[in-house]
Write a structure and sequence with these properties.
The structure is a single chain. By secondary structure, this protein is an alpha+beta fold. The strands form two sheets. It has a 25-stranded mixed β-sheet that branches. It has a two-stranded antiparallel ribbon with strand order 15-16.
Length: 498
């Protein structure tokens, strides 16, 4: 074993005092002329060369000291420090490599993490940066920063509970950096229901502000994700910021979990608009509502159950623009294309209500329902009132998406309160004005092209060949360019078959 001796504190202070006296005696009289003479004599002085060589060799010896340690001893020390820091079992390789530059560090390949006797991660490369001091004391070699690259980590539902320990204790004092890692969220049956990709992130305990800190950049559900989290585990307060760049949304959550139920303030930033919610978080659910009121109703409110997962959200508006649903650059299509709403492990109902419809004085009382249940996304139970006389309902609908676009198929039932007023509105000929209580249309709508295809029309739950021939002329019509005259002609042609 190679032994090194280090100068004592007293010797270091004596050396510094002599150096200080030298500067005081020489620099006070230093000028350009005598500086040249002093420098010339210095570079030809063998003692100067020897001193520089000693310094370089000392630094090299200091930094290279860990290279002399035995693999077995190094691995035992690394394993002990990692398991103490993170409360996981680590399976380390038989060999460890040491690198002196740019930072003294140990490199380990193919590291495994074990939790509950199950391997949850395989790390391709782990770099352990060491502190610069105490290199010569083997028992005091300390890991300063930890870098994990190209790992795959499996997280099961029960493991998520472990994350909440983040909020109740001081996390790792050593800074943990993650680069190009993937987190696979799995059910008990090993089914993957979400993949979180970490491009770069770090977590550590801020010893100056006494806060747990997490900074994350990655991707989830094909959406770029940025997360910044600060947690004061002593005061039981958390500040979370999330940014989903693809859909242009930012979220901020301020949580106080000192008492039950936990109280939080949630803010959504959408461009220049800001929406604030009050949240009460229970053991297995949360309830929320907006500070903003629309006609004595909350702008939005709802609840979320965690076991099993189900969400019910209600949104109330004063006015709604139906063109937002079919605009290629609108938020609705951006959300559909982002795949956020079609995660197979989610179940939810979102209901949007609006008393008025923009640019349509005869349409009112919109109820738009977005339902997702057992991998089926639909608009069932959506409805709207036309001219105070016809209630239009969507049933048996289904949303699909493929390389050709985003499609909604289903049936619209038009329930007619007064057929005389309807005939009058469409200026129907009197000989065709027969009793009419219900019109049903089977349709397919392409969100990307705005084309509407009518596949079938039933009057009072009945259809005929004449109607089928009529609707062939109205296939693949662009909805936003569909003129009132065309709708009028279609209605009168169809009711003429009664």
């Amino acid at each position: 074993m190679i032994k090194f001796s280090t100068p004592s504190k007293k010797e270091i202070f004596n050396l510094l005092k002599k150096f200080n006296d030298f500067l005081a005696n020489n620099l006070s009289t230093l000028n350009l002329k005598n500086f040249r003479q002093w420098f010339k004599s210095l570079i030809y002085d063998r003692r100067f060369h020897i001193t520089i060589a000693i310094i370089i060799l000392s630094v090299f010896a200091h930094l290279s000291a860990p290279a002399f340690y035995q693999n077995k001893w190094v691995l035992s020390k690394i394993k002990k420090q990692l398991e103490t820091e993170f409360d996981f079992n680590f399976v380390l390789p038989e060999k460890v490599n040491y690198s002196m530059f740019p930072v003294p560090s140990f490199h380990l390949k193919n590291v495994e993490l074990i939790h509950d006797n199950k391997r949850i991660s395989k790390i391709k490369l782990m770099k352990l940066h060491l502190s610069y001091n105490k290199f010569f004391d083997k028992e005091k070699v300390n890991i300063q920063n930890i870098y994990v690259e190209d790992s795959q980590i499996e997280i099961y539902n029960n493991d998520i509970k472990e994350f909440f320990n983040f909020f109740d204790k001081e996390i790792n004092n050593k800074k943990l950096f993650l680069k190009n890692n993937k987190f696979f969220f799995k059910s008990k049956s090993d089914e993957i229901y979400a993949i979180l990709t970490s491009k770069e992130s770090k977590s550590y305990f801020d010893q100056i502000n006494f806060k747990n800190t997490l900074n994350f950049k990655g991707e989830i559900f094909n959406n770029p994700l940025k997360v910044n989290l600060l947690n004061d585990y002593l005061k039981k307060k958390t500040d979370l910021n999330v940014e989903l760049k693809k859909i242009g949304k930012k979220f901020n959550l301020k949580l106080d979990y000192l008492n039950k139920p936990n109280i939080a303030i949630f803010e959504l930033q959408d461009g220049s608009n800001s929406y604030v919610s009050n949240i009460k978080l229970g053991k297995n659910n949360l309830v929320f509502d907006s500070n903003r009121k629309i006609n004595d109703k909350s702008f939005y409110k709802g609840f979320v159950n965690f076991k099993p997962f189900y969400s019910d959200i209600e949104i109330n508006l004063r006015n709604f623009d139906l063109s937002n649903l079919i605009d290629l650059n609108g938020i609705f299509l951006q959300i559909l294309n982002s795949e956020i709403i079609s995660n197979p492990n989610l179940n939810y109902k979102i209901e949007l209500n609006s008393e008025k419809i923009k640019n349509h004085r005869l349409l009112r009382n919109l109820v738009l329902c977005l339902n997702y249940d057992q991998k089926n996304f639909n608009f069932d139970k959506s409805k709207i009132i036309f001219d105070d006389n016809v209630e239009m309902n969507i049933i048996e609908s289904k949303y699909t998406s493929d390389e050709n676009g985003n499609f909604l198929s289903g049936k619209i039932n038009l329930l007619i309160k007064n057929d005389k007023n309807l005939y009058k509105f469409f200026q129907s000929k009197k000989q065709f004005r027969k009793p009419l209580k219900k019109i049903s249309l089977s349709f397919e709508f392409n969100f990307n092209s705005s084309n509407l295809t009518i596949n079938k029309i039933e009057l009072n739950d009945k259809s005929n060949e004449k109607i089928e021939d009529i609707i062939k002329n109205y296939k693949n019509k662009e909805l936003k360019n569909l003129r009132r005259l065309e709708i009028k002609n279609l209605f009168n042609e169809v009711i003429a078959t009664l």
